[in-house]
Description:
Number of domains: 2
Radius of gyration: 17 Å
Number of strands: 0
Number of helices: 5
Shape: elongated
Largest sheet: none
Low-confidence stretches: none
Strand content: under 5%
Mean pLDDT: 82
Helix content: over 70%
Order of helices and strands: HHHHH
Structural class: mainly alpha
Amino acid sequence: MWLRSIWYILTLRCEEADRLRAVNDPASLKRHQRIAERVHRRLCKSCRHAARQLERIDRGLRELRSDGPTTHPEWDASRAARLDASLRREIERD
């Protein structure tokens, strides 16, 4: 079984690494999956860039959420503008 885990870590593809990064609860991943994603990210420049973008989007969404809930479930113009501004700030930090 450990040989299979090592093989998974060494042969992880970008698509699978991206799927692992997108998991809402990283604690739900198996240990070898978390290790494989970290190793792959260290070796793959594109995946490092994708991971940074995902972190920026998450920060922007958290900032938007911290503005407080709206009374309407639909996206009004002001909410869309706040999201746009938040994401632009994250892009400028690059």
